[in-house]
Design a protein that fits this description.
two-stranded antiparallel sheet; mainly alpha; 69% helix
């Protein structure tokens, strides 16, 4: 999903990567099939010179005069390079639409003249023109087209285009795509390291992956990526690379749930201690976040010092956005320390700069401070006016992408047409190559056939001679075979006797196993019954859980053996699937509680099937046990249904370790098990799924597993169904007990409302810490479990509703 606005970190990254994008869009001068006159080449180079020296008017005039010359049209490569330089001039002038018109012509010329390298560079600049206007989706479309061209025509450029795709996908919030492109680029560079001489592409991938893992909360992985970039910068003596990695590490350690003030400060100071003019940009932006770090640690004096030093770097530069941000951050500190006049003197110029330069985010931030200042001074009318402007800007920033959608669709259409044209040109070339290959093949076939005919004649003669020799050998071997036949008959009789003895031994073992299993069931039932009535002691709970597991193993073993020996005749009756699931849930409740599993039942109450109650409950117990066994602590299991023709399809989906593609076909085999030692539960005998398959097929149904290693497993079984199709939905009764609170828990919950009300539904770790404190307080209300369920399901509405239930109590 595309974000409504880039975060500050992503804004920094976009500025950091802008140097990379501009670098890859620098012109490449290729020689045409015939060298142009020296005068034309020099004039074309002059257009690039005027761009570099920012003499735009002369550059535009010179380019227009060159395009008017007929001799210039005979040199397409020179023509494309000139248009390329002219487009860059218009981009810096802020006339991106004009630049795109020029680049469209250059791109068509590059394709028609088979200059793939120039086509890619022109396409990159088209993407950059959209990037400059924050039209990131259109920029992504053109970067993708460059990647397709490089993959098929210019392999050396392929890793660079992957890096561009990773960067732009990260900028628009498509983090999975961003990570995929960076990983693919690193794989390409492993194969062809010469494509990244000094490691710039790898450094960009490390930084991008570090940012991704930092945003997703995988901080250790983020740390590894940033440290890899830091090491690469030190190995190649690249200060900029070192500073970017240090900046990322500093931001990582400044996060609230990975907070380490000393490490964050140390990484920031590594950048700010550089005194060279060349890297003052890195120092300036790092001073800003260092000031924010000090401010969060209540070291306001050091924070103001860092921000003042940052302001000296950006004063006099064109970085209006940074200056405004520094003024706003400084004003916030003064406001916090009740120096209202100083704060106002800072924030009002920042607001003016934001308005003049159309910096919507800075205008919003300045208004956020200003309306609080007005309220403090008692000027409530001005405070209300500024607050309304603040809210209007906030709302508009969240919907700014709507205007770009039509442009994006047009660009995608043009991209598709261009790709089709490329495929047609490639098809013509392939056809000519095929005709040439066909002629060559015919000549080779004639020579080969002639040779084969000669070889066949020789082989026939040799075969005749060989046949005579073999007939003689065959007669002698027949005599030997006759003697061996008698010997084999003797050994066969002996093996039959041994086989009969083994069968008797197997029958004895099977009878003994059945007898022992039957004799164990009664003691186990007694153990389970006694332990269930002995209270909530953890040791007693473990005894009960182990007893249930062992009883389940024995039952599976006996039932599978019975099914294999006797054809099953299910005692069918009309059963509600939801009731069957509840009965199965009761039998696995201990396992669910042991791993804090969230069991989500989406089966409608009215869904009914004709089946044997005992068999189907056993099937559901086995499938739920398997799902719990291979799920992680705090995982979720979903149960839902669908319809296929005259069958109802029930699915039990977990988020566990999954099963590899090679192992899936064997999971229903008798005694087969996968990764049981990693499940965290007691071992099984590998008969649970065998039982499920036999029981479901006895009902005329089917069962299968759908799984991807590392992504969980779906167990899907289908049974005959003649009723009306019913859609899975969240059952109304799931919320009937929402927020049920015992009277004795009210006072305790009041004390925790303020801490919970400051959290968001996605702050899982923080919520769980507070719920653990409630466990220690002895809270028994189901309100606690409902709140945890809302967090796991990211259900913000339910989360807020549950907090509102205790809010009046907390405020009284």
């Amino acid at each position: 999903m595309k974000p409504s606005k880039p975060s500050f970190t992503r804004t920094i990254n976009s500025l950091k990567c802008l140097f990379f994008i501009v670098a890859v869009t620098l012109p490449i001068r290729l020689s045409a099939q015939s060298d142009p006159p020296e005068g034309l080449a020099a004039l074309s180079d002059s257009v690039e010179f005027y761009f570099s020296s920012r003499n735009f008017d002369k550059g535009i005039a010179l380019a227009d005069s060159l395009f008017a010359q007929k001799a210039f049209e005979k040199h397409p490569t020179l023509h494309i390079n000139t248009r390329y330089s002219l487009a860059k001039i218009y981009i810096l002038k802020g006339e991106e639409a004009k630049a795109r018109e020029i680049l469209d012509v250059a791109y068509d010329m590059a394709l028609s003249n088979d200059t793939a390298i120039l086509a890619i560079r022109v396409n990159d600049l088209r993407a950059n023109s959209y990037f400059e206007t924050s039209n990131y989706d259109s920029a992504r479309t053109y970067f993708h087209l460059s990647m397709v061209l490089a993959d098929s025509l210019v392999p050396r450029d392929y890793p660079r285009t992957l890096a561009n795709m990773g960067f732009i996908n990260g900028l628009v919030g498509d983090e999975e795509q961003e990570m995929g492109y960076y990983i693919k680029m690193l794989e390409e560079l492993e194969i062809n390291p010469e494509y990244d001489g000094r490691g710039s592409l790898r450094a960009m991938a490390y930084g991008g992956l570090g940012d991704y893992y930092s945003r997703t909360g995988e901080y250790e992985k983020a740390k590894q990526q940033y440290e890899a970039k830091l090491k690469l910068g030190r190995d190649t003596d690249r200060p900029a690379m070192i500073y970017e990695a240090s900046y990322g590490l500093g931001n990582l350690y400044a996060k609230s749930d990975y907070y380490d003030f000393e490490k964050s400060e140390a990484n920031y100071l590594r950048v700010t201690q550089d005194t060279t003019e060349r890297y003052k940009y890195y120092k300036g932006r790092t001073l800003i976040v260092l000031g924010k770090l000090y401010e969060q640690a209540d070291k306001d004096a050091q924070a103001l010092k860092a921000l003042d030093e940052a302001l000296t770097f950006f004063n006099g530069s064109s970085s209006v956005d940074y200056i405004a941000r520094i003024q706003i951050e400084t004003a916030k500190i003064h406001f916090k320390n009740k120096r209202y006049d100083v704060a106002e003197n800072l924030v009002r110029p920042a607001l003016t700069e934001a308005l003049e330069n159309r910096l919507a985010y800075r205008e919003r931030d300045a208004l956020g401070v200003l309306y609080k200042l007005d309220s403090t001074k008692g000027d409530y009318r001005a405070s209300l006016r500024h607050y309304q402007r603040y809210r209007n800007i906030e709302d508009s920033l969240q919907s700014k992408d709507a205007k770009e959608r039509l442009q994006e669709l047009q660009v995608k259409y043009e991209t598709e047409q261009t790709e089709k044209q490329n495929l047609l040109l490639k098809g013509d070339l392939n056809l000519k190559e095929a005709e040439l290959k066909q002629k060559t093949i015919l000549q080779i076939v004639f020579i080969v056939v002639s040779g084969l005919m000669l070889i066949i004649v020789l082989l026939v003669y040799r075969s005749y001679r060989r046949k005579q020799q073999l007939n003689h050998e065959l007669a002698s071997k027949n005599e030997i075979i006759s003697e061996q036949k008698d010997e084999l008959q003797f050994k066969t009789d002996k093996l039959q006797i041994i086989n009969s003895q083994l069968k008797s031994l197997f029958d004895f073992r099977k009878d003994l196993t059945r007898m022992i299993a039957h004799d164990m069931k009664n003691p186990l039932n007694s153990i389970i019954g006694i332990s269930s009535s002995m209270g909530q002691d953890e040791r007693v709970s473990n005894i009960s859980k182990s007893g249930h597991q062992l009883l389940n193993l024995i039952t599976n073993m006996l039932e599978v053996e019975k099914m294999e020996e006797v054809k099953i005749d299910p005692k069918k009756e009309l059963l509600f699937v939801d009731e069957l699931m509840k009965e199965a849930r009761e039998q696995v409740e201990l396992l669910v509680a042991a791993k804090s599993i969230l069991l989500q039942n989406f089966l409608p109450k009215e869904l009914a099937i004709e089946a044997d109650r005992q068999l189907m409950v056993r099937v559901l117990v086995n499938l739920l046990t398997n799902a719990i066994k291979y799920s992680g602590n705090g995982g979720a299991i979903k149960i839902y249904h669908g319809h296929e023709e005259n069958k109802v399809v029930i699915t039990i989906e977990d988020e566990g370790v999954g099963i590899s593609k090679e192992r899936v076909p064997f999971i229903f085999d008798k005694f087969w098990q996968a990764n049981q030692r990693q499940s965290g539960l007691a071992t099984s005998n590998g008969l649970g799924l065998t039982y499920c398959k036999l029981a479901v097929e006895a009902h005329g149904g089917t069962i299968e597993a759908q799984s991807v290693l590392g992504e969980g497993t779906k167990m899907v079984f289908a049974l005959p169904y003649e009723g009306q199709k019913i859609n899975s939905k969240q059952r109304p009764e799931e919320h009937q007990e929402l927020g049920f609170i015992l009277n004795e828990d009210f006072e305790i919950l009041q004390n925790y409302w303020e801490a919970l009300s400051t959290l968001k539904v996605y702050e899982v770790s923080a919520v769980k810490r507070i719920l653990k404190q409630l466990d220690a307080e002895g809270i028994k209300s189901t309100w606690k479990e409902e709140l945890l369920k809302a967090v796991y399901q990211a259900d913000e509405a339910m989360f807020d509703e549950l907090l509102n239930l205790i809010k009046p109590i907390a405020e009284e």
